[in-house]
Specification:
Layout lengths: L6 E2 L18 E4 L3 E8 L5 E8 L18 E2 L3 E6 L3 E6 L4 E6 L14 E3 L2 E6 L7 E5 L6 E6 L11 E5 L2 E7 L3 E6 L5 E6 L11 E3 L2 E6 L10 H8 L6 E3 L5 H5 L2 H5 L6 E3 H11 L5 E5 L5 E2 L5 E5 L10 E3 L2 E6 L3 E6 L5 E7 L11 E3 L2 E5 L4 E6 L6 E6 L9 E3 L2 E5 L4 E5 L2
Parallel strand pairs: 16-22
Antiparallel strand pairs: 1-3, 2-3, 3-4, 5-6, 6-7, 7-8, 9-10, 10-11, 11-12, 13-14, 14-15, 15-16, 17-18, 18-21, 19-20, 21-23, 24-25, 25-26, 26-27, 28-29, 29-30, 30-31, 32-33, 33-34
Length: about 425
């Protein structure tokens, strides 16, 4: 995100994954409990200032995630940063702290991935967390004063960032999360409409806007369907007390952060009631990528969905709208491209020739689309069909963050450096 003085606060993440290390990063975490913000001169790469806060370590985090997962937001005066387990903190352009809003103790399965967003003079933060504490809130970026807060208790551990949808006389904040996408009044946070069609947990891609429509995506987590409690407990409840402890449950439930989600009252045990409630919740899940026409007030029907596909859906990276098309990149370097209006596929799971996982979202400029892999390869393709690879660039370090485009410069953060590339 560029600021008028020629400085840049680079992006940290596209989803629940973020670069490790500190060279050139917008946010960084060091020595377990120290979180940093860096300001970099975007013409020379010189670090102009850095500021540090101290916070607790995340209670649970995915092996590919990191505590420094959020992208800073700025209005050109305040640089606002969200550090999960700490809260919000804001600095002026010269790095002086303006205010802080502590938010300790929020548990997010696999670690946080959301970022704050600047919208119509407000700093908007979506925190979809465990333990019934999810919320959407708006703050004054100059003072940190909370302007409004809307509880979202039914939304569990999603990693999406708010987007602003303006049309006619309506100005809304849109959040994609568990089971549905919701539009809120930007002035007071009141829920205006909702549309079902997403996964139940771990919704990562942030929606994008284009040609008057909203493009929403979430992957399928069919492996999270739960068997009947009686069958599961029969082989797991070793002491036959009718509940399951952390010591009894299979290791994968701990590694995937599922135990805390199932143990809804936080007493250290999963009961049959909690298990059945979770199973019913997961059974409502849907997945895919769909285009949503501008909705009105209240509960919506599928009449507002212009088109939907269930193939060519990414796990973490967000879709890209560019020149009337929607691009998606899946793990393994598979690209699918849709006509934004009709949903017709121009290409489906075409190979980039650069394998690995894709956490960074694609970006585009000058008729080219840039795909960044976790293995450190940036593949450039023509924004046309058939898929034509114009070049592959090996940066020698993992790329888990979405590149930033400012004027004619492309900024890419790897696990070890911040790179700046000029236009060609």
């Amino acid at each position: 995100t560029a600021v008028p003085t020629g400085r840049i606060v680079p992006p940290a993440s596209a989803g629940p994954a973020s670069s490790r290390g500190g060279s050139g990063g917008g946010t960084g975490a060091f020595q377990e409990h120290r979180f940093e913000v860096l300001a970099v001169d975007r013409t020379s790469g010189k670090i102009l200032w850095r500021q540090t806060v101290v916070a607790a370590s995340p209670r649970e985090i995915h092996k590919q995630n990191h505590a420094a997962a959020a992208t800073p937001a700025t209005d050109g005066r305040s640089v606002c940063v969200y550090h999960a387990t700490f809260g919000l903190v804001a600095y002026d352009i010269d790095g002086r702290e303006l205010w802080r809003q502590p938010m300790p103790g929020l548990l997010v399965r696999n670690g946080s991935g959301t970022s704050p967003a600047m919208m119509d003079g407000r700093l908007v933060l979506n925190c979809d967390v465990e333990e019934g504490k999810s919320f959407l809130a708006a703050f004054d970026p100059a003072t940190g004063r909370e302007l409004w807060r809307t509880p979202r208790p039914g939304f569990l551990s999603s990693y999406t960032t708010p987007v602003r949808w303006q049309r006619d006389s309506r100005d809304e904040i849109v959040i994609v999360g568990s089971l549905r996408v919701v539009g809120y009044n930007g002035r007071d946070g009141r829920e205006r409409w909702t549309v079902a069609g997403t996964e139940a947990v771990s919704v990562c891609p942030t929606p994008v806007l284009g040609d008057g429509q909203l493009y929403v995506m979430s992957r399928s987590l069919s492996g999270m369907k739960l068997p009947a409690w009686a069958i599961f407990a029969l082989g797991v409840d070793q002491d036959a007390d009718g509940k399951i402890s952390r010591d009894e449950i299979p290791k994968r439930f701990i590694e995937q952060g599922m135990f805390s989600g199932l143990d809804r009252d936080g007493d250290g045990f999963i009961t049959g009631k909690e298990w059945n409630e979770a199973a019913a919740f997961l059974d409502q899940a849907d997945y895919g990528i769909f285009a949503l026409r501008p909705p009105g007030e209240g509960e919506l029907t599928t009449n507002h969905v212009a088109w939907k596909h269930k193939k060519g859906v990414a796990s973490v990276s967000s879709p890209l709208f560019y020149r009337g098309r929607v691009y998606v990149v899946q793990d393994g370097g598979r690209v699918t491209c849709f006509d934004a209006t009709s949903g017709r596929k121009f290409m489906e799971q075409e190979r980039l020739g650069a394998d690995g996982e894709y956490y960074a979202s694609p970006v585009a400029a000058n008729g080219k689309v840039f795909f960044s892999s976790a293995r450190g390869t940036v593949t450039v393709v023509a924004a046309a069909d058939p898929l034509t690879v114009l070049g592959r660039n090996e940066l020698g370090a993992p790329i888990l963050t979405t590149p930033a485009l400012v004027a004619d410069t492309l900024y890419i953060r790897t696990g070890s450096h911040l790179w700046a590339f000029g236009a060609q």
